[in-house]
Amino acid sequence: MTAPTRTLWTGFESSRGQFGRIVDGEGVHLILEDGRRVLDGTNTGAPLGHRHPDIVEAMSRAARAPVIHEAWDSVARDKATEDLAQIAFVQDPGWLGGVHWCLSGSEANDLALSLAQAFTGRSALATRVRAYHGGSGLARDTTVQPQWRGGLVTTDGRNMPVPHSVAVHELAGPLGERIGPNAPDAELDRAQLADAEAQLADAAAVIIDYTQGGVYHSGAYQDHLAHAAGRAGALWIADEVVTGLGRTGCWFSFQGGETRPDMVTLGKGLGGGAAPCGAVLVSRSLAEQLDGALWQTAGTLRGHVGAASAISAHLALLARERLVARAGELDAVMLALLQELASAHPSVRRIDGRGLHWTIELHGTDWQHWHGDATREPIATRVAAKALEAGALIMTSGEEGFLVLAPALISTEDDLERLVGALDHGLTLADADV
After folding, report:
1. I need a surface site. Which of 44, 161, 177, 411 has the fewest CB within 10 A?
2. Residue 202 lies in a domain
3. Are residues 243 and 199 in the same domain?
4. What distances in angstroms separate CA 331 from CA 50, 213, 338, one per listed residue?
5. Which spans in 279-368 are helix H?
6. What CATH number should be reported for the domain holding residue 332?
7. Are 331 and 355 in contact (CB under 8 A)?
8. Which residues lie below 8 Å from residue 294, measured CB to CB, with a gap of 6+?
9. Which of 303, 320, 337 represents a domain boundary (last residue)?
10. Phi-psi category of 117—alpha, beta or left, where left has phi over 0 and alpha has psi -120 to 50?
11. Do 159 and 189 sit in the same domain of this protein?
């Protein structure tokens, strides 16, 4: 008998089967095939939860609109650009100089990095340790987490990585966490970048994100890196694919520092969970330097009417419901809940996060040597499976000991208590391994 066709193979393959298939979603809940209604604590791609009526209405209108190639002017696309400038950049009204719409965060990072290469004439790139910026092109090159380089691993332990296409410099990361043995320290973060300028001497750009590896860096780290990049002649790209538009309690995580990037990339939840999309945002200063130049890239479905409509509806909701400020207010709620959780579980090594995005790292994690080829199921996957018994779906990174909490921005305090309560249930399994 012929084996059934598989949909895909990914680094999350070990999770399949034991969590049940998702058939529907409503608000902050997902509905599984067996009828269970569980909290969705996993989805940075659905910041407004599921089936929000405003998003559904926007997509319904878009379904009746013509599909227009990126080469042609579009009212919906221009409105999304204007809404982004007027709503998301209320704290930095003079920064945004231009928007290039994309199909995903990975594509946005790839295009931003290639633009930096063209602008500077350099090919080398830089990022920080543990970085993840996407799975294709230059975004994959700057993904230095070994298990997410886009290669192959086999059940017999063979590892077949994808070669780099350009030189990539790995900068030291920030130190410390909000819950754990090492409190954040601005001076230590700056010291981590003592040789950053030398490392960036031949780089077209340095791209940094704000969450990967469970390390949420400080404004001091950002500012020191930004100044080093400026002196070295490298552009600075802020990867806000995860953190942009309110996830960490502010419109953009770069607003935690005094410096401002040359480019910002967006993706994941940009379309409110209704459409896959991304964007390269270019500063006014860089846009002025590019004035008169033609960027030789185009895509048939970039800035698709569905994506543009979802973006505008999403931004309007964020502003009307004060969801960004709300995520900032819920930071204290999450911090208190997770402090109690860490105290109760010896398996927890450290917790870091902001707003409504938190990472729990378990003892025994060795990310530098984890390539997804372990002979046993990762402990994080088993913890998430046990948490599902208590009614919540919790995200793992596919690694041995990392769990991520990313509830919808519309979550209530009761939702958050139930989410952390489910993780509390799941961690009893990890405690037995300590």
Report:
1. 161
2. yes
3. yes
4. 22, 19, 11
5. 284-289, 305-320, 323-344
6. 3.90.1150.10
7. yes
8. none
9. 320
10. alpha
11. yes
Can you give the pLDDT of all 434 residues of the chain as single tens digits? 555 544 444 555 445 567 889 999 999 999 999 999 999 999 899 999 999 999 999 999 999 999 888 888 999 999 999 999 999 999 999 999 999 999 999 999 999 999 999 999 999 999 999 899 999 999 999 999 877 778 887 777 777 888 889 999 999 998 889 999 988 888 999 999 999 999 999 999 999 999 987 888 889 999 999 999 999 999 999 999 999 999 999 999 999 999 999 999 999 999 999 999 999 999 999 999 999 998 999 888 898 999 999 999 999 999 999 999 999 999 999 999 999 999 999 999 999 999 999 999 998 766 666 666 656 688 899 999 999 999 999 998 777 788 999 999 999 999 999 999 999 999 999 998 76
Same domain, 417 and 300: no
Residue type, 280: V
Helices (H), 70-124: 75-83, 105-120
Q: Is 1 part of a structural domain of the chain? A: no
- Whether residue 386 sits in one domain with residue 312: no
Total domains in the chain come to: 2
Which tokens is 312 given? Answer: 């505008």
**57 and 111 inside one domain:** yes
Calculated CA dihedral for residues 264, 270, 275, 276, nearest 10 degrees: 30
Q: At which of 285, 320, 355 does a domain end?
A: 320
Please indicate, yes or no, if residue 48 is contained in any of the structural domains: no
Compute the distance between CA of residue 98 and CA of residue 283 in angstroms, rounded to an integer: 7
Domain membership of residue 229 as a residue range: 53-320
What are the distances in angstroms from CA 252 to CA 160, 296, 328, 409?
A: 36, 28, 12, 15
For residues 315 and 409, state if they share a domain. no
What CA–CA distance (Å, rounded) separates 188 from 217? 11
Residues 93 and 326: beta-carbon distance below 8 Å: no
Tokens of 279: 């964007």
d(CA 193, CA 199) in angstroms, rounded, equals: 10
| Calpha distance 288→230 (Å, rounded) | 17
CATH for 200 = 3.40.640.10
Find where tokens 């940094």 sit.
208
Same domain, 341 and 192: no
| Same domain flag for 21 and 84 | no
Question: Amino acid identity, residue 42?
Answer: T
Distance CA 388, CA 356 (A): 19
Alpha carbon 192 to its chain's center: 23
Q: Helices in 121-246 by DSSP H: which ranges?
A: 137-141, 186-192, 196-199, 219-232
